[in-house]
Write a structure and sequence with these properties.
The protein is mostly helical and 305 residues long. It contains 13 helices and three strands. It folds into two domains: 114 residues, DNA polymerase, domain 1, CATH 1.10.150; 169 residues, Orthogonal Bundle (hpI Integrase, Chain A). The two termini are 44 Å apart.
Length: 305
């Protein structure tokens, strides 16, 4: 099967060749054109694409048009020395995206990346879901008022860290039943509105600033982020909050998002509502959380325990 796929990549298509639809006249120009298509992603994601592509181009050391399947395979194998499986998947996905873009725009005659498959990732979602008591203690033990509100809003909104740290007060509005509404602008350029619980909304309202002011300001003076807390600092805040509860727990902001989805499912929230809140394109991604709910299992019906 792998050999057939490789042959499919290098054999000319029976249909008409792809028209050239890019002005790129060099690999560097193609790289820049490709990166511009990632403009709707977060700045952190775009930098990751750029970093991964540059690592690949430095490794192969020759023009994209001259690459072979073996070049991509050699690069993939070189990653095994220094990178964990998830990181290798991310790096190779970036490389495959660049090469696919090159062929689709007519810059490259062939897509040699198509023959190289991504390493199969272990599903570790269950390990990244914090129980409700753990999150309650994370929030309770946080000594800083701003950081405490950050933890609460991350969990309540299930927002991605990049979405939450760039919030301005204009993104928070009064909602129904005494609560609030936060507008999150996220992955893929999609916007969604999420309800804020009454108590959290009340605490946020007490410190509300001007519409164009950041909800979570940085203590450092910066122009690049317009005064907003950085995603790196938000990671540190979550990590520190988790280690106050358990010194060995290496939680990240995304764990708050995972936990929101899992806990909502446990309390019988419709999966379509959770999908809408998390901003998933379809329920396939959201249903992963259902797979990891283990309050009921066939082991409950066994006699021997």
């Amino acid at each position: 099967m792998a050999m057939n796929k490789a042959i499919e990549v290098i054999q000319p298509s029976a249909s008409a060749p792809v028209s050239r639809i890019t002005r790129a006249a060099s690999d560097e120009q193609l790289r820049e054109s490709w990166l511009r298509t990632k403009g709707s992603r977060s700045e952190e994601t775009r930098r990751a694409y750029e970093r991964n592509a540059d690592a690949f181009l430095a490794f192969v050391g020759r023009p994209l048009a001259a690459l072979t399947i073996e070049d991509v395979q050699d690069f993939a194998e070189s990653l095994e020395v220094s990178y964990a499986l998830d990181s290798r998947r991310q790096i190779l996905a970036s490389v495959k995206s660049l090469l696919t873009y090159g062929q689709q725009t007519g810059y490259l005659a062939f897509n040699v990346g198509r023959a190289v498959t991504l390493p199969q990732a272990e599903d570790t979602l269950a390990q990244r879901i914090l129980d409700e008591e753990f999150i309650i203690r994370m929030i309770a033990l946080e000594p800083n008022d701003r950081n405490k509100l950050l933890l609460r809003l991350m969990y309540a909104s299930a927002g991605r860290v990049s979405e939450v740290v760039r919030l301005k007060w204009a993104h928070l509005q009064d909602g129904l039943d005494g609560g609030g509404l936060v507008t999150l602008y996220g992955k893929g350029g999609k916007t969604r509105a999420v309800k804020i619980p009454v108590r959290l909304w009340g605490d946020l309202s007490k410190i509300r600033g001007a519409d164009d002011a950041p909800v979570f300001p940085s203590r450092k003076q910066n122009t690049a982020r317009e005064g907003h807390l950085s995603t790196v600092q938000a990671w540190r805040i979550v990590r520190a909050a988790a280690t106050r509860v358990d010194a060995d727990k290496k939680a990240s902001p995304h764990w708050m998002r995972h936990s929101h989805a899992s806990h909502a499912l446990d309390r019988d929230a419709p999966i379509t509502v959770i999908q809408d809140t998390l901003g998933h394109a379809d329920t396939t991604t959201t249903r992963r959380y259902a797979k990891h709910r283990k309050s009921v299992s066939s082991s409950d019906w066994l006699v021997i325990s």
